[in-house]
Design a protein that fits this description.
Layout lengths: L17 H12 L4 E4 L6 H10 L5 E7 L6 H14 L1 H9 L1 H16 L16 H11 L7 E7 L1 H12 L1 H17 L4 E6 L4 H8 L9 E4 L5 H14 L8 H9 L4 H18 L5 H11 L9 H10 L2 H16 L6 H9 L3
Parallel strand pairs: 1-4, 1-5, 2-3, 3-4
């Protein structure tokens, strides 16, 4: 297992959280469309890629990222493009002649719309990428029991992009169009959405919670302590980095909230110290690693948290959020709701 920091670990480098994966497949087995909710850097994309790589006779998953899309048509074009270029299409075509002919028909129309980058001159089109995706998922009913999971990463970011570019009404309309597609899709098609912005909060801000109330919320929690301990030891052992028996527990006690990204950052520091100085990981080196990864030179590892807050909240909301986080970082005890409400009142 390689210690991959910042990129998405796949294959043998992905740490399989068996309980989480089992829960996720149980939700999919129920036929639910899902929204995966999790804090940033909790491994959402890695889970989606694992589902894609693990495609079998029961489920075929296609991964789509729409972070840059800022209008509805571009979004639906990207979804169709990734679907048509995925292995899912070929797998279904081998199972069903009817589905094969259907895909051929839709791919031809997609090409005429310019979906593959080359638009065929056929006069003004009377259809759209939205229409094509909607019609495809309505008609794709002969897959011999194979379920297709269309996984859309950074979906809430697309909503926010549309809101910022075209206003509230267009963002709400986008959510409604997606709901229509999910509602009209055959039972063989499932949608799994996720992103680093909370979709329920964003929908509430837009007054459009009814447009996402068909989604089943699936939460990815921080690692359990035993999972975090196993990931750390796997990375250290694979990297042939020597460590004292008690240093992992010491590290986890200091960390207290177990994000795979933070664990990977610490292991990267341990590896650097071993390669440069031959140092065995100890309690002392754990303290040194914490100091280094939180120093100014490593701002890039954490800047995205602030950037996300600054994009999501207005001036007073941002000031309140930053002050609340500052208080939480400096005290060991839980903060009570009356304290939060009193703090919020100072920013109104």
């Amino acid at each position: 297992m390689k210690n991959i920091v910042g990129q998405t670990p796949r294959g043998k480098d992905f740490f399989i959280r068996e309980k989480l994966i089992r829960r996720l497949y149980r939700r999919l087995d129920s036929g639910a469309n899902l929204y995966i909710a999790a804090p940033r850097r909790m491994g959402k994309t890695a889970v989606l890629r694992y589902l894609e790589d693990k495609s079998d006779d029961a489920y075929n998953a296609v991964y789509v990222i729409t972070e840059a899309a800022d209008n509805s048509e571009n979004f639906f074009k990207v979804v169709l493009h990734e679907l048509f270029r995925s292995s899912v299409v070929g797998n279904i075509q081998r199972l069903s002649k009817k589905a094969s002919e259907l895909f051929d028909e839709f791919q031809e129309r997609f090409k005429k719309l310019g979906g593959f980058g080359i638009q065929i001159e056929m006069g003004k089109s009377e259809t759209s990428f939205y229409d094509e995706l909607r019609n495809l998922v309505k008609k794709l009913d002969d897959t011999h029991g194979l379920k297709v999971v269309i996984m859309i990463d950074e979906f809430p970011q697309t909503v926010e992009n549309i809101f910022r570019k075209s206003g509230k009404d267009e963002a709400v309309r986008f959510l409604q169009l997606n709901r229509e597609i999910r509602q009209e899709a055959t039972s063989n098609i499932l949608f799994l959405l996720t992103g680093s912005i909370g979709l329920p909060t964003l929908a509430e801000k837009l007054g459009a919670t009814q447009a996402i109330n068909d989604l089943n919320i699936f939460e990815i929690e921080p690692f359990e302590r035993e999972e975090a301990k196993q990931l750390t030891s796997n990375l250290l052992d694979s990297g042939q980095i020597p460590y004292s028996p008690d240093c992992i527990d010491y590290m986890l006690d200091k960390l207290s909230w177990f994000s795979p990204y933070h664990i990977q950052l610490l292991v990267q520091e341990f590896a650097d110290e071993f390669d440069l100085k031959g140092k065995t990981v100890s309690k002392e080196s754990v303290d040194e690693a914490f100091s280094k990864i939180t120093s100014r030179r490593n701002d890039a590892n954490f800047a995205h948290y602030y950037e996300r807050l600054s994009k999501t909240f207005a001036d007073k909301e941002l000031s309140f959020a930053l002050e609340l986080l500052k208080i939480l970082s400096r005290q060991n005890d839980d903060i009570q709701m009356p304290q939060i409400q009193a703090l919020a009142a100072t920013f109104t």
